[in-house]
Amino acid sequence: MEFTVSKSDLVRELSLSQGVVEKKTTIPILSNVLLEAEGDRVVLTATDLELGIRCSCPARVKKEGAGTVPARKLLEYARLLPEGDVNMKFLENHWASITCGRSKTRIAGMSRESFPELPQMPEQIAEIPVKLLASMIARTSFAISMEESRFTLNGALLFLRPEGLTMVATDGHRLAYVQAASAESGQTNKQFRALVPKKALVELVKLADEADPDAKAIFAGDDNHLFFQVGHRLLITRKLTGNFPDYERVLPKDHQLVAKLQKDEIRSAIERVAQFADERSRSIRVQFTNGEVRIFSSSAETGESEESVTSEYQGPDLEIGFNAQYLLDFLRVIPQDHMAFELKDQKSAGEMRPAGDGVADQYRYVVMPMRI
Amino acid sequence: MRTYFHLDMDAFFVSVEELYDPSLKGKPVVVGGRPNERGVVSAASYAARKFGVHSAMPLRMAYKLCPQAIFVDGHPERYRDYSHKIYGVLQSFSPLVEMASIDEAYLDMTGTERLYGPPLRAAHLLHERMKAETGLNCSIGIAASRLVAKIGSDQAKPNGVLWVIPGEEPAFLAPLDVRKVPGVGKVAEKQLNALGIRKVGDLARLDESFLDQRFGKWGLALAGKSRGLDAGGWFDTEIGAAEGPKSISHEHTFSEDTTDLAQIESTLARLCEMVGRRLREHRLHARTIQLKLRYWDFSTFTRAHSIARATDLDTELFEEIRELFRRNWKTGAAVRLLGVHVSSWSEGDEQLNLMGEEKHQKWRQALEAADRLRDKFGESAVSLAAGLRGNFRERTHENPASLPGKKKPS
């Protein structure tokens, strides 16, 4: 096999595979990227058996064929090359020789025979605008559980219906829910529900960043896998198995108490006060009183802090404990200027929502309090 | 100058058994189980000790050494009862009491001369009162440090009182075997003997820096101990200061190695119940849960998991422990011993769960009600169904998770 690509194309596509390639693997071939030269393109494939990515870029193919080389080493080397054409030629012993300007390198490769086969993409289910997808991921993925033992919570639920697209994530203490109407998410007459692993969501955001603003992701799925095709790039992930909790039951039906808040004000206040929260529990106390919300923290080691912001709140005085990080996760991700904090009592979940103008889809964030 | 008492009950478990069955008196008695059972001797009477039987020895070996001994099952609840009585007597004597195990205690007697007279007289009074109120013999060591008081009570046994007059500590300690120093076990003794150190006097003569170099912090503490000082972590806190446990654990050795998953899981459930009970007793919530697994060939594994939300509920402990077991058990390998160990107490505010919070609260209420039943009717009054098959007899420990008089952290 022999082909020539532009250095910038090669580096860009290789970069996309780095998040997928296993850093520490017991199977050496998984550290490699598969290169396939065909027609007028070269296709790059990487996988860790859970997640796979297939990208391509234009190439002048002199001789068709395939081979694998260490993905990290190839990228690190290619980045250092001058702009211009890079020629790659695979040799009999699976090594590849790389020529660029006056640089000549031979990189140790492995036979493509041992590279795992990626599943075939089935018929498409929907076309989802990538910007919407990325924004839904940004608003939910922080709530995904980091605890490996809770494997059904190690990803987000993707729920596609004729009415629209829903994404939900939770770690058992808080839950983020976004629903986009079909006008935004694209028409479909199918219903499809799957758990997407966190690592796949991270890579999906990277694909969205590289794509045109109005690009669409072609979405498909089989029994075990999910497929997201964005232009020439295809991301394949295994589905998470198991039952996602019944989120409908968690979403509060009604709230007696609502505090409207200016987002930047409340965010900065919490950020400052949280500096003096207990480092492990991150707990702060939030006090709702007429026209005002006050925030307190104290820690035996570092000290204590308090701050107040004005709020349209009319109701009985109420003091609730929260993990400051949980509140900030939401406040840092919404673009809107205002938000509503809805509450029931000290022991029930609170809900945060964007408020005011420019709220296009439905975004709800439910946080369980701390016992203080 | 401080005055400490160390009071140690004489052959405690055996003596309590004798109170229930006076015919045992004076005979070789072994507490811990039947001679053909697995497990170890919890205590041996003085008559049995003459044959070389001692605690922590396998029951079967005790039988070989002394086949005529009377083997009795341990009764942990009786010992706990008596431990409470002992604590009661001690507390009536001095407010600064710390039970170091189920049958021994330190008393800070500093400044009680006007109340009880000189130390020896005070010890005599305590000794008599203990006998009168519990029917049990004890030995008391008196010294200016807890360490020497403890060694003293050992030397005073049985049924004696020994006062090491301040200033006389080196002379008292020098002729004793190094093994008599608390903190020196079988392994350390060997290492010290290998260096030609046999007596405490040999230790005291050594350069501190040599012990430091050779054994690190522990060696440095040892140097202090050899001169009769309260050195090392044991004595960091004052007697009577509130100090909770750092970890809580329970273990069980099967009388026959088992591969029966139902029996294993049931035993784990039972152990979790015992641990959960102690957690609630101390008002502690554990974040780290550890499984101990010993196979038929004595190979032993521990596997721990930290949970996001600390717990004191049997059911939640069991869920974690069962998961740890299922992940780590070499399927089909016969299990000899199981243990459940919890640590890392959570402090401060508790994060509530989005899902299952109601269930959590209901379990808490149910288990607290079960605790009240146990307080009233004994430990076996009520138990989780999952643990019923694993309902083994509790073995007797000298250091149960809870000791009377240990202050609970508020």
Describe the fold and architecture.
The complex is a heterodimer of chains A (372) and B (410). Chain A has eight helices and 27 strands. Chain A has 372 residues and is an alpha+beta fold. Chain A folds into three domains: 2-114, DNA Polymerase III, Chain A, domain 2 (Roll), CATH 3.10.150.10; 126-248, DNA Polymerase III, Chain A, domain 2 (Roll); 252-367, DNA Polymerase III, subunit A, domain 2 (DNA Polymerase III, Chain A, domain 2, Roll). In chain A, the strands form four sheets. In chain A, strands 14-11-12-13-26-25-24-18-22 form a nine-stranded antiparallel beta sheet. An eight-stranded antiparallel beta sheet of chain A has the order 6-2-3-4-17-16-15-10. In chain A, strand 11 and strand 12 (164-170) form a beta hairpin. Chain B is globular and about 65 Å long. In chain B, a hairpin with a 4-residue loop joins strand 10 (286-295) and strand 11 (300-311). Among the domains of chain B are: 171-236, 5' to 3' exonuclease, C-terminal subdomain (DNA polymerase, domain 1); 248-387, DNA polymerase, Y-family, little finger domain (Dna Ligase, domain 1, 2-Layer Sandwich), CATH 3.30.1490. The chains are: A alpha+beta (372), B alpha+beta (410). The interface between A and B is medium-sized, with 25 and 16 residues. Strand 27 (370-371) of chain A pairs antiparallel with strand 13 (350-351) of chain B, so a sheet runs across the interface.
